[in-house]
Amino acid sequence: MRLQRLARPAMALIGWSLAFSAWALGDKPLRVIVPGPAGGTVDIAARVIGQQMSADIGRPVIIENRPGATGSIGLSAMLKADPDGNTIALGPNNMLVEAPHVMKVPYDPLGDIVTIARVALTGYVLVAAADYPAKDFQGLVEHLKTRKGKSSFASYGTGTVSQYSGLIFSSQADLSMQHVAYLGSPPALTDVIGGQVDIMFDGMVTSLPLIKSGRLRTYAVVGKNRSHYLPDVPTMSELGYPEIEFQGQVCFFGSSKLPPEILAKLQAIIGKAASVPAVRQKLADAGLEPDVNTDTAVLLAENRQLSQGNAAIVKKFDIQAN
């Protein structure tokens, strides 16, 4: 997806500017909770956009990392703060539509939390170690069939797209693969590269640097369309697996108790900052696809649909938290 295709009309920028001008009169810092570790992709996105937001509104934007429990620690901290717009969160939407199906969370993910804005999309990719015997996707399936019941796939966590994709692939290709869950992509990819695990469906952002450095081999991408980062790599749908079609979202979240006027101001601030060309380029450089959407109703409808689909997958494969 080319950056220029995501540009917004100039009049929208003018509207955003007018909408958040009054917000800049406050003097309290804007606190953005990131339910992940410092240095991660979402953290990078928060700091890039947060820096621009701070410049736009003339107030400090503080990034606070609160990792753990698949995002529920950070989201719980956000919900405990006053719903005055000064404490929001930024993270992947799987915190709302995936994790709650396999672990108990102390909130209603689609009722207590509002998606303020989506700022980027992210894809997934099927990878193995660079020296893995299979050279292409068909070769991969054939090789795994020779190891039926003995091969394995890694995921970056139970109840995630990473696991869903592996389970569906294993089932439809009749591979009987063993699932090995990890606490995040880095340790999982280390074992994939080391040969302890055969394959992994991973997020594009974490795998792409290893693909570029020649440490991982790609077989397919997971998404509706081919990735512009890997234009020659086919999608799982093209290869005959239409059910393996997922796309992640990076979003700002807030309490559903936010007053409508504050929600609108936050959307104006975020929408303007995330649309700055330099910000979009930095997000793209990190492996994300800039995509700004501040239509709360549309985002909620998307999340409901995704949540229902994921619930069906969890039920079908009887996925349970470790």
Tally of individual helices: 11
Helix content: 25-40%
Element pattern in H and E: HEHEHEHEEHEHEHEHEEHHEH
End-to-end distance:
37 Å
Q: How is the biggest beta sheet arranged? A: 6 strands, mixed
The total beta strand count reads 11
* Average of per-residue pLDDT values: 91
Apparent shape: globular
Radius of gyration: 20 Å
Structural class: alpha/beta
Low-pLDDT ranges: 1-25
Strand share of the residues? 15-25%
In which order are the strands of the major sheet placed? 2-1-3-10-4-11
Task: State the main characteristics.
single chain, 322 residues, alpha/beta, six-stranded mixed sheet, five-stranded mixed sheet, 11 strands
Kindly describe this structure.
- With 322 residues, this protein is α/β, with parallel strands linked by helices.
- The protein is 40% helix and 20% strand.
- The chain contains eleven helices and eleven strands.
- Strands 2-1-3-10-4-11 form a six-stranded mixed beta sheet, with helices on both faces. It has a five-stranded mixed beta sheet with strand order 7-6-8-5-9.
- Strand 1 (30-34), helix 2 (41-57) and strand 2 form a beta-alpha-beta unit.
- The longest helix is centred in the C-terminal third of the chain and has 22 residues, at 296-317.
- The model is unreliable at 1-25 (pLDDT under 50).
Could you give the topology of this structure?
Blueprint: H1 10-20, E1 30-34, H2 41-57, E2 61-65, H3 72-80, E3 87-92, H4 94-97, E4 113-122, E5 124-129, H5 137-146, E6 152-155, H6 161-172, E7 178-181, H7 185-194, E8 199-203, H8 204-212, E9 216-222, E10 248-255, H9 260-274, H10 277-285, E11 289-293, H11 296-317
Parallel strand pairs: 1-2, 1-3, 6-7, 6-8
Antiparallel strand pairs: 3-10, 4-10, 4-11, 5-8, 5-9
